[in-house]
Request: fold
Amino acid sequence: MEIVFSQERMPGESTVQLMKKAGVLCVEEEGLESDRVTVSVTFIDNEEMRELNAIYRGIDKTTDVLSFPQFNDLSEINKEGIVCLGDVVICTEQALIQADEYGHSPERELVYLFVHSIFHLLGYDHMEKEDQDEMRLREEKIMNKLGLER
Reply:
């Protein structure tokens, strides 16, 4: 899996390596060949995230992560060739705040937000309780495989 990371506000190498491993686990969980998949990840601050959230979701406040999928449904993905799933935007400042609030490491929070976003790129959402439960199960499965359980 190719993950193109922005260099600005990029986390440490151990976090990046966990994110790469997580990405592979997520896409393979959905039956995709990880060597065909590419995703971009950008790290931004609270103000930039607030602006993006206002533009794309109509919510004028910061959030932790935004996902910009290239497909509405996995059935749209070509059976051959490289597949760009989409873009992930993570608010580093918000991730650090949440890690402190939840009592776990910044590394765990950043990897979780990435996993959460990858599942959005793969077509999952959490608008309905049933969908949220399914998405959470998938997220926790990946986090447990990484040794980053709650």
In short: The longest strand covers residues 83-91. The two ends are 26 Å apart (CA to CA).
